[in-house]
Amino acid sequence: MKKISLTNQILIAMVVGMIVGSIIGPRIEPLKILGDIFLRLVQMSVVVMIMGAVIEAVGSLNPKELGKFGWKLAVWFMGGTFVASILGIAVGFLIKPGSSVTMEIPSNVELSPTTEISTYETILNFFPNNIVTSMTEGNMIQVIIFSILFGLGMSLLSVHTDLGTIKAGIHQFNQIIVQMVTMIMKMAPIGIFALLAWVTGTIGFEVMIPLGKFIFAMALATAVYLIIWIVLTATICKVNPILLAKKLTRMTVMAFTTTSSAITLPVKMEDQEKLLGVSKRVSGLVGPLGMAMNSNGLAIFLAIASITLSQFYGLEFGVKEAISTVLLSTLATLGTVAVPGGGLVALAIVIPSLNLPLESIGILAGIDWFSGMFRTVLNVDADATIAMILAQGEGELDHQLLNTPMDDIP
C-alpha cells in the first residue's frame, strides 16, 4: 500500500479538523493545546535555525560577492512587494469589499494603543543593542543583521586565518537543527487538525459571511499574483510553469494551514534545495532573509484592508490615499514578525496614517486567521521563486533537478 505523503496528510487533517470543529462546536477548544504545542516546538528552533543558516551562508562568501548579491536580493524583494501593493489596491477598487459591510466593531476586541513611530526610530530598530534580547523577543530582522555581520566577519577573517573548525561546527549545528525540525514536522497533521478544529468550532463559518468579499478579494489577488509570478519565474529559469506549481505544493499547503512563514521555513528551504534545484548557499541566504523582509502577501493584505475599512466608514480613498497606502504597505512589511497575527501588527502602522480609528482593526481581527492563509502562501511561494531567480543569475540552479518530474524524485 502506497504511503500517504505528508502534504496529503496535512490536507486530510485540515478538512477533517474543520468538519469535526463544526460538529462539536466551542467544546472543541481544549483540543487546541495539541496545535499550540506543535507551533511552539517549531518556533523554538526558528531563531537559531535562521541565525545558523545566515552565518553559514554569508561566512562562505567572498565579501565582494555578498555586496553584489545583496543588491539583487533587495531589488527583487522590494520590487515584488511594491507590485503586490499596487495589485492589492487594484483588486480593492474592483471588488469594493467594504461597500456592503454593515457590521459594527466588536465590543470584545481590545487593542493596545499604538503611538506613531518616526522614520528615525523605524530604521534604528533594525539594529540590535543586545543580541540575546533580540533572540528572546524573536526579533527576526535584528537577528539577521547580527548574523550577517557575524558571517561577514568570519568571511573576512578566513582570508588569513584557518577557520575550518568553526565553519564545520556551524555546519554540523545547522544539520542538527534541521534534523530536529524534520522530526517535529511529523506532528504537523495532528497539530493542524487541532488548530483548524478549534478555529471552526469556536469562531464558526458564519464569520466568513459579513466579510466574505474581503476574503474573496484576498484570494483573487493572491491567485493573480501567483500566476503572474510563477509564469515569470518559469520563463527566467526555463521550466514548465505547471511543473513548477506542482513543486511548490508542499510549502503552499504548509503555509496555508499554519498561516506562518516561520513555521513553513524548514519545509520551504528543503524543497528549494531538493525539488527546485536551488544551491544551499543561495537557499541559506534567501530563505531566512525572505521570511523577515519579503512579504508580498502582507502588502496585498494591507492594501485591501485599507480600502475595505475606508469604504466601511464612508471615507474618500483617492489617488493620494492609494499612493500613501502603497508606500506604507511596502515599508510596513519590513521586519514584520513572521508568525500568525503579524498582519494586525502591520495594519496598526498603516491605519492611523489614513485617519482611520485604530480600533477599526477589530473588524478584521475575527477573520485574521483566514486572511492569513492567503498572505502566507504568497509570502512563502514568492520567497522560493525569488531564490530560484537569484540562483539562476548566480549559475547555481540545478536545471536537471528542477525539470525532473515529481514522481521521479526519491
Automatic annotation (TrEMBL):
Q: Where are the transmembrane segments?
A: 7-25, 37-61, 73-95, 140-159, 180-199, 214-236, 248-267, 297-315, 327-351
Give the location in the cell.
Cell membrane
Q: Which InterPro entries does the record associate with it?
A: Na-dicarboxylate_symporter, Na:dicarbo_symporter_sf
Entry keyword Oxidoreductase: no
The answer to keyword DNA repair applying to this record is no
Please give the superkingdom of this protein's source: Bacteria
Q: How does it sit in the membrane?
A: Multi-pass membrane protein
State the protein's name: Dicarboxylate/amino acid:cation symporter
Tell me which species this is from. Answer: Facklamia lactis
